[in-house]
Amino acid sequence: MMTKPLLDVRDLRVTFRIHREGAMPWSAPLPLHAVGGVDFTLNPGETLGVVGESGCGKSTLARALIGLVPAEGQAEWIDGRDLIGLSPRQMMKYRSDIQMVFQDPLASLNPRMTVGQIIAEPLRTHHPGLKSAEVKDRVKAIMEKVGLLPNQINRYPHEFSGGQCQRIGIARALIVEPKLIICDEPVSALDVSIQAQVINLLIRLQKELGLALVFIAHDLSVVKHISDRVMVLYLGKVMEIGSSADLFADPQHPYTQALLSAVPVPDPAHDLAGSVVPLSGDLPSPMNPPSGCVFRTRCPRAQAACAEQVPALLGQDHRTACHFPGPLTDAEIARARNTEAA
Amino acid sequence: MVIQQDKMQSLATRMSQDEVKGRSPWADARKRFLRNKAAMTGLIILIGVALFALLGNQFAQWSNEDLDFTVMGQVATMGMPSFENGHYFGTDDLGRDLFARTVQGTQISLMVGIVGAAIAVIVGTLYGATAGYVGGRTDQIMMRAVDILMSIPYMFVLILLLVMFGRSIAMLFLGIGLISWLDMSRIVRGQTLSLKNREFIEAARATGVPSWKIIIRHIVPNLLGLVAVYATLLVPLMILTESFISFLGLGVQEPLTSWGALISEGAGTMNYGTLWQLAFPLFFFVITLFGFFFVGDGLRDALDPKDR
């Protein structure tokens, strides 16, 4: 008997309507499928890492889950309620359960508000009846928890460093005692030593409070460190999803293998050029995605069948959306390198 | 010793201190503003003019309505500025005390400027912030309405209004108020559009803060710098508009007066050797405009240090 997942996402789609430049105002807008049918489950207290290159729909997925962009499909919360398409009033109940931590620490804090006001805002929104003194006590308690000095409560964001600002952002997310925090590249704007501090803080808080995390990043080593399971996105579709150990040790999808091969290894003797699987070309436009498997235009293993049928996400725990999964052979890597050179 | 006892002590007290006071962006701006000499000069001039408008009547020896029959008919020789007969600024053509008249004109002109700018600030900010934040079709409709209102030659409409409904100070306020907020709403909308996609707005939306609270709590405070600058530059424009209308003879009505009306009267009698009738109202008019422009520039520098 499996535990009921905290969040069960099925076929989540986000489509933006883009008006062409210079087109007539009444002409039909073109659809842009930023997220094109994503399935995953997230268990309570678990961390799901989401990786993929820029523009693959990671952030849009996060914004769709939290209701900042309209989405279609299904996202079932643990109590059986579908979060997609709820009215703002109905969604209000769940907003305190799902919080978000943003990428740019300073930009995510209102420069005209004190830290105390910023952290208290979710609390005041969801519990308007609380007395000021009580709010202040809770703000101070949470500041202590994330490693900020509580006596800094009246300071303004510009008086803090980037890492401290991110701690403020985390405190703001934690104050309403959420069950799920969506971290949208929370450390990519910080320098490396601070990254480690913030990540360890997140891990510690997760253990203490039993939080589930959706951790979006493009830094694979960070994702490996923090995640229980990892989901690889490409052009708004899931390529591969599996437990962190499994996926990093035995990647099945050619795209995952290419991503992993590009991770820098801190060893001067390591021959990066000899190990990396090159991907030719750029990310195709999401307004005009390739038929069949979206990755086929850059895949070293692409065959005629890949253009015809969309591969299903198959497998039990480690699932892959590929017609021909499995490790890339040396011959395939060599061929990919030749196309790249040509 | 590597560790200095007193330094560690002061650090420890600092860490355990009760609630360090933060330095808000406003406090920073105030400091920069106070250091700006031109702006401070402007501010002092404005305070002086405001005091003149408020307290000037206490010093006047004549009421602004009384005619001085001893100088009537020989204003050019008898009505000069003098301390002896109590006409500090001389008299106008009819023998009324120009000092009292200038005080009255200053009051009216400043009021027109400040009320016009206040309408612009309140209506323009809320209108522009709403249009920008809501976006989409609402934004389109609201801003097209502004475009249409802007395309009407306002001076023409204002003159028509004053001719049709009679010249009254209320009509003048209405007319100036109607046009003053248009530019402001455009500027505010543009700024709101750039603020709207900042992450702290997204964070507030994700938490479920209602839209009107986001506008009031997050958008408007971040706009206030720009609004304050524009409002201080708007006051002299309003004064100029009113003066122009009064100069045409359509503005405030006797026995009320304004700088524009006084300058107009003074200009009319320039050739008869009564230059003071032009000089005194003009002096206050010019220094006030200078004052406002200096303060506006100073505010812009103080609130927006990145732009320099």
From TrEMBL, chain B:
Transmembrane segments annotated in the record for this chain: 38-60, 108-129, 141-163, 169-188, 223-250, 278-299
Entry's localization field: Cell inner membrane; Cell membrane
Superkingdom, natural source: Bacteria
Alphabetical UniProt keywords: Cell inner membrane, Cell membrane, Membrane, Peptide transport, Protein transport, Transmembrane, Transmembrane helix, Transport
Membrane topology term: Multi-pass membrane protein
InterPro entries: BP-dependent_transpt_permease, MetI-like, MetI-like_sf, OppC_N
UniProt xrefs under PROSITE patterns: ABC_TM1 (PS50928)
Occurrences of domain ABC transmembrane type-1 (ranges): 106-293
The family this protein is said to belong to: Belongs to the binding-protein-dependent transport system permease family. OppBC subfamily.
UniProt-recorded name of the protein: Oligopeptide transport system permease protein OppC
Source lineage: Bacteria, Pseudomonadati, Pseudomonadota, Alphaproteobacteria, Rhodobacterales
